[in-house]
Amino acid sequence: MNKLFKTLSFIAVMMFFITACSAPVAQAAPSVAGYQAVLGKPVSDNSVADFIASNKCSSASQFQLCRGAGMALWIDPAQKINTVYLYAQGENGFAPYKGVMPFGLAFKDSMADVEQKFGQPKVVHAPQAGWEPGLPDAGSSPDHIHYWAVYERFGVTIVYNTPFANDKNASIHSILVTK
After folding, report:
1. Phi and psi of 67, rounded to 5°?
2. Domain of 92?
3. Which of 15, 23, 83, 95 has minimal CB crowding within 10 Å?
């Protein structure tokens, strides 16, 4: 009995050491790379191909839908990633985008917050003079559900959850970043 106890104790200790010292098994997880990793690159680029594969993106016409990464990639006729759509939580079946946001934006930002972030001093050499909101270069509501504020100078379009350009409390539905 004592010999059996010693043998079982030895096996238990060895199993503990084998388990504790072995390398963890890598599990495939979606890439958390930001939009910068793919924007402006050709689809044939290895990093883009790896991103698409690791995020299990699906092809839909000129788009790669990377729902798990919270992104959709628009591919232009030259086969480059021209625009990246970044989605907020639960929008159109996409997970929330978790990478670095452009220009310090956050999905919790209201329209007023975005205009403040994109604004500028009223007098360039006198910041105490106040702040002008960063109004979009263009805007429209093509689907009559969302307002699209286009900031051409930044290469960004903010899609809000309202069709109204004057709803300063509107929240961000998605962000389009263009190269």
Report:
1. -60, -40
2. 34-99
3. 23
Identify whether 9 is part of a domain. no
pLDDT of residue 20 exceeding 50 = no
pLDDT at 38 over 80: yes
Same domain? For 129 and 149 the reply is yes
Q: Domain total for the chain? A: 2
107 and 154 in a single domain? The answer is yes
pLDDT in tens, 65-77: 999 999 999 999 9
Clarify whether residues 72 and 132 are in a common domain: no
